Amino acid sequence: MIYQFDTNIVIHYLRESEVMHRVEQQFNPFDTANEIWICVVSIGEIKSIAIQSKWGTKRLQQLASLLDMLNPIDIWSEDILDRYAEIDAFSQGKHPAHRLGQSARNMGKNDLWIASTASILGAQLLTTDGDFDHLEGVFLKIGKL
Length: 145
Fold this sequence. Notes:
alpha/beta
């Protein structure tokens, strides 16, 4: 199985929270048969959180170790750029081929990039964030916790 960690899942792993334990039980992402990806945008978000929260050396080392176990995916690809545009148009209820079926959703730009990479990878996006829910079954497979 291919998984992509949303930013909040990485934070839960660093905290070794109950959500992390649920991810492990439900998805077992670190099984050798699986691939785990992370969008470079999530890496930027986490590094910003680290600066703003004044993480110490130990926490930064934990972050580096965890990121070493994840495959980074860049956003600089024609497929990802096109998917970003499609997801943004869909979220605004203006995609010519896909009906939103609800009022427009203003997604954060970082979430658009994260969704775009997961969609192109064919990855199940592991997240606690409800902002991706409207994309389920159209552009994404979501493992919501």
